[in-house]
Design brief:
The protein is 37% helix and 23% strand. The protein is an alpha+beta fold. The longest helix has 20 residues.
């Protein structure tokens, strides 16, 4: 009986202490007239950051259905990062977003919005509609 309770306790604590961020950065994809831009540059950056930081996974949620032209947000959990890693991560994410916005082909192409000072709390996300957990595993590149 003790072994069963110990096993259940161990299993429960593993689930409880699994990566569960409380703070998220928001990256928004907006449409001007003809749909949203691709999230590929940001997802590629997430995969690159993960590879450089020895496989440190990032919790990423996607909230779709935010507009008539497919607008959506990505929420990236940052609680698993140290302060130094978080600063490097934000700097790189900001560069990826700025590069994508600068490379727009026309004024009718959608924009990517990112404000590094804006943090979304997990409690706010739990009330959001159309929210799905996505994996950065899909975007890892092989060398």
């Amino acid at each position: 009986m003790k072994k069963v309770l110990a096993t259940i306790g161990l299993f429960s604590s593993v689930i409880f202490f699994a990566q569960k961020s409380e703070n998220y950065l928001q990256v928004g994809y907006a449409s001007v007239c003809c749909g949203t831009p691709s999230d590929k540059p940001v997802m590629d950056y997430l995969a690159q950051f993960k590879n450089k930081n020895k496989g440190k996974s990032l919790e990423v949620y996607k909230q779709s259905g935010r507009g008539r032209e497919g607008e959506y947000n990505l929420y990236i959990g940052t609680d698993g990062l140290s302060k130094a890693q978080k600063l490097v991560f934000i700097k790189g994410l900001k560069a990826a977003v700025n590069s994508q916005n600068t490379a727009r082909k026309s004024e009718s192409t959608g924009l990517v919005n990112f404000d590094e000072t804006e943090t979304v709390r997990k409690a706010d996300l739990m009330n959001a509609k159309n929210l799905t957990l996505i994996s950065t595993q899909k975007t890892t590149k092989t060398k």
